[in-house]
Structures are given as C-alpha cells and as structure tokens.
Amino acid sequence: MSVLVTGGAGYIGSHMVLELLDAGEKVVVIDNLSTGYHWAVAPGADLVVADIADTDVVRQTIRDHDVNAIIHFAGSIVVPESVADPLGYYLNNTVKSRGLIAAAVECGVKNFIFSSTAAVYGNPKENPVTETAELAPMSPYGSSKLMTEIMLTDTSRAHDFRFVALRYFNVAGADYKGRSGQSTPKATHLIKVACETAVGKRGQMEVFGTDYPTSDGTCIRDYIQVNDLAAAHRAALKYLRSGGASEIFNCGYSKGYSVHEVIAAVKRASGNDFKVVLSPRRAGDPAAIVAASSKVRDALGWTPQHDNLDEIVLQALNWERGVDRLKASAT
Ligand SMILES: NC(=O)c1ccc[n+]([C@@H]2O[C@H](COP(=O)([O-])OP(=O)(O)OC[C@H]3O[C@@H](n4cnc5c(N)ncnc54)[C@H](O)[C@@H]3O)[C@@H](O)[C@H]2O)c1
Ligand SMILES: O=c1ccn([C@@H]2O[C@H](COP(=O)(O)OP(=O)(O)O[C@H]3O[C@H](CO)[C@H](O)[C@H](O)[C@H]3O)[C@@H](O)[C@H]2O)c(=O)[nH]1
C-alpha cells in the first residue's frame, strides 16, 4: 500500500514526503515539475513526472503502487497571478482536481487529503477565524480552492470516499533537519522574500501597505511551520484510515504577526539591516487573518512542535544560504 502525493516535488509536498517516509509509509509522487524540482523528492519515494490532468497516468500509478490514500498538493499558488489569469487557475486548481478526484473514485481510493487555504475566507469579519465563518474568497485562487472543497463534499456524499481539507494559513520555514525548504522560482511569500534580501539575492524588499487598521498599519498573518503542517496531514491520514468522517480544518497557530514584525525577525536572525521600502497596498490582501485552531488540535490530536517565529525565520534563512549549493549538486 502506498500514499500518492501530488505536487510532492514542491515546497510543502516535499516535506510531506519526508514526513511519510520517516513514518515508514511507501510513497509515490506525481508532479509535472512546473514549480517543483526532481531533487526535492526524497530518494525513498518514487517520482512519476506527469501532469495530474493525465488521468491515464494517474489511474496507472494508483494501480501499480496499490495506492490507498491521496494527498493532493499540486496546484498554482500565487494570489496576484490568479487575478491576472483566472482561467489558468480554475484549470490547474479546479478542473484538474476534478479529474484526480474522479480517478480516485474509479480506482476505489477512499481517503483523500486536500491542500486548501485561508484564502477561502477572504477578509474575515472576526479573528481568529473559525471553520464555520463566512466563505468569501477575494481572489480566483481562493475561489478555485473553494470550488474543489465543494466537489469533495459532494463526492463524499455520493460515493464511498472520505476527505479532509486542510485550510493552511501562511506556510513558512524549512525542514527542521535541513533536508528541504522553499525553492519556489520568483517567490512572492513574505518570509522567503525577506530571507532572499537578507542574504543579498535582492537589493531591497517592499512592505505592501502601511495604512491597514492593525497595530502598526501592516497586514497580520498566522505563520505555520512546514513540518508542523506535514504532521497535521499525517494525523489526518490516520484519522481517515480509522474511519473518520469527511472534515475541514484550519491549520495555523492562532497567533498573528505583522509584516513589520516578520521583517524585524529576519533582520535579527541574519544580523543584516537590509533596505525595506514602504509601498502601497497589494491588490487582494486581507488586513488580518489568524486561524482558530482548536478543531484540528481536538479532532486530530495535533500538537505543533515549531510554533516560534524566530525558529521559523532561522530555518528559512539557513535554507536560503544553502539551497544554491544543493541545486547545483543535483544538476
Ligand atoms: N505556501 C503556502 O503558504 C500555501 C498556503 C495555502 C495553501 N497552499 C497550497 O499548498 C499546495 C502546495 O503549495 P506549495 O507552497 O508547496 O507550492 P509549490 O509551487 O512549491 O508546489 C506545487 C507543486 O505542484 C506541482 N504542480 C503544479 N501543477 C501541477 C499539475 N497540474 N500536475 C502535476 N504537478 C503540478 C508543481 O510542480 C509543484 O511541485 C498548493 O495546492 C497550494 O495552493 C500553500
Ligand atoms: O515582499 C513582500 C511579500 C509580502 N508582503 C506582505 O506580507 C503579507 C503576507 O504575504 P504572502 O505573500 O507571504 O502571503 P499571503 O498572505 O498573500 O498568501 C498566503 O497565504 C494565503 C492564506 O492566508 C494563501 O494560502 C496563499 O497561497 C499564500 O500565498 C501580505 O500582507 C503581503 O502584502 C510584503 O509586504 N512584501
């Protein structure tokens, strides 16, 4: 029996593969390497280089590897890009997920875990935001993920098929053992951009918006460390395998940090007082979003191990310093 990880060559997926291998699971990855890397897939896992839209390959992989659970990370992830190219996002995130879910049902795979996002909430009326809050995505990215959640809910009602959708808040940091990290090309995420600036890959960075109704005027987010997030998926896998009902859980720490606070943490960790430019707001950014996390803690017994912004930033910084060497040695 194996677990199929789609998008397992990407940032979060590569950490999931490590988490599963560490737990003694057999793992097969399907990834088209559009933003992922061959070298990011741990050697203990099999990699099938294919698009999830190729459902013949998906079905064959499920059968060849006796797959009994799918963890679905493959997708497009940049909010502003989704505003510019909504149909591209609905294709890659929604239409292709539909094909994958159909292949799972056809092949009798009953357990499915989906990478959803806090972006389904849009700009929440209250923080921390609970799973029952109004769903009002502010971008095609958020809508494309919400539509997949809806497909999963309807499919689980019609078939012998159960799912867990995990709504990630802001994923950050790198493997605590240094085996993987974020290598996304042209990264847009705050901690990644700040670390690239700290190590001199960028001359400066921007703060998008200083006039939000928050303590220091910059946006507030809940940053969850990537190994902790992978551990939540493994807890969800155990839950589904033991017969748990389909569920949706937030994944965050219930703690918010402002953009200024995050940049200060990166400056502290790097010892580099790099240049920061104050810029206008970025389209589509909610002012503040922080997860209510008691549901995932109670139902899955999830207990974070890396809930510390300084640790998260240091991991990201160490990864940034070493990643080019790693990439070069793999090519
Ligand atoms: N990074 C975050 O903060 C965050 C937050 C919420 C949700 N998510 C979700 O988590 C998932 C993983 O995100 P990530 O940060 O690791 O991004 P990533 O870009 O590093 O990983 C995505 C992986 O999927 C692959 N892929 C994309 N489209 C594919 C397709 N059609 N067929 C096969 N492979 C395909 C890419 O090559 C890449 O390896 C995404 O679904 C994303 O929406 C991420
Ligand atoms: O160079 C930068 C990059 C980001 N920011 C700010 O930092 C905050 C966090 O931005 P990120 O781009 O790191 O993350 P987002 O909150 O926009 O989005 C992330 O979290 C969302 C859920 O909250 C989605 O899941 C999405 O996929 C994921 O990218 C925002 O206020 C953004 O404007 C800057 O000021 N400068």
UniProtKB/TrEMBL annotation:
Catalysis performed (reactions): UDP-alpha-D-glucose = UDP-alpha-D-galactose
Domain of life, source organism: Bacteria
Pfam families named among the record's database cross-references: Epimerase
Segments traversing the membrane: none
Associated pathway: Carbohydrate metabolism; galactose metabolism
Keywords noted in UniProt: Carbohydrate metabolism, Isomerase, NAD
Recorded GO MF terms: UDP-glucose 4-epimerase activity
EC number: 5.1.3.2
Residues of the NAD-dependent epimerase/dehydratase domain: 3-252
Names of the cofactor(s): NAD(+)
Single GO biological process annotation from the record: galactose catabolic process via UDP-galactose, Leloir pathway
PANTHER family: UDP-ARABINOSE 4-EPIMERASE 1 (PTHR43725:SF53), UDP-GLUCOSE 4-EPIMERASE (PTHR43725)
Subunit-level organization: Homodimer.
Family: Belongs to the NAD(P)-dependent epimerase/dehydratase family.
UniProt protein name: UDP-glucose 4-epimerase
